[in-house]
Each structure stands twice: as structure tokens, then as C-alpha cells.
ATP-binding protein
Amino acid sequence: MSTVELRFAALPGHVRTARRIAMAVARRAGVPAGALDEIRFAVGEACLRAVSVNRRRAPEDLVEVRMTTSDGVFTVTVTDSGEPSDDATPAADGGLLGAPALLDPGLGLGGSDLADAEPSDLSDGQDPAVAGFALPPGIGLALIEGLVDDVQIRRRPEGVGTVVTMSWDMKALVEGDLAAANPAR
């Protein structure tokens, strides 16, 4: 089992560095090239969320990122100092809104701003709110849940902070790459 750990100040510029390190660790662990963009995006979203939460709750606290490879599973854990509800949009039924509802422009949660945005409109690692985009709370976690094989969101053992754990089964990723390269005719 190999492990890489990062700790960085809650500054948006550090998100880019965390993503790049995650990509390098994933490549070194043998994650297929076809899954690297997914990992880059998911790690970036988790780190951006953690930076945003820490800046509001505890700006002096560090964001913690831990990347491990064990038994064919690549896992990234991002820990912040906030509550899981710090980045969530409640639904009318008391639950949380999922990705489709969060992106619906009719809800007035910022989906229309996102629909008109170009990827080049945001600098790598820039906080979308700073760039003038109104991202709805919870969109980062909803996107991560759509990208990652296994996501767990829980409280820190000591009670203060949120731990987002994302795992990818490398065997399934390799099989997925092979199936995409050789579609059944």
C-alpha cells in the first residue's frame, strides 16, 4: 500500500496543485488514462469545496488530502473543518437536491449561469463565486457522486469537519477502457 498526504492552506490556488499531484499519483498507481480526467475533476471539486468551507468556517485550518492505493483500489480522501450541510441545498421534502435539480435553470440556483459559461472563463483552481458564477450549494458533492465509483461523506471522528472519500476500482476501470476500445459489433 502506498500513501501520499497533502496539507495546504484554504486558498483556491492550491486546488490546482492538489489536482496535479492526484493525477501524478494516479498515473503512478496504474490508473488507466481514460479515468484520469474523472479523477482530476473529482479531486478538484472536493478540494475546492474544502477550501470554500474552511475559508468560511476556519480559515486558519488546513485542507487535508490523502491518496492511497491498496488491493487495486485508488482512494482519495479530502478533509475540511466544516459541516456536511455547509455545501448542500435542501429540497422541499427535507432531503438534499441532486445534480439534475441543482442544474435546472428554473430553480433559480445558478444553473443558467453555468449553462452560459465556457470552461476558459475560470482560471484553473479559481473559486467560481469569485469569477461571478453563482454555483448552487451542493453542486460539487453532487458532481462528485456522479463521477466516482464509491463516495462516502461523513463527519470527522473528532466531530469537527467533513471527510469526503472517493474510491476507484482500477480493475473495473481497465475493463471499462478495454470495452470502450473494443465495442461489440
About this structure: The first strand starts at residue 2 and ends at 8. The CA atoms of residues 46 and 66 lie 12 Å apart. The radius of gyration is 17 Å. The mean pLDDT is 76.
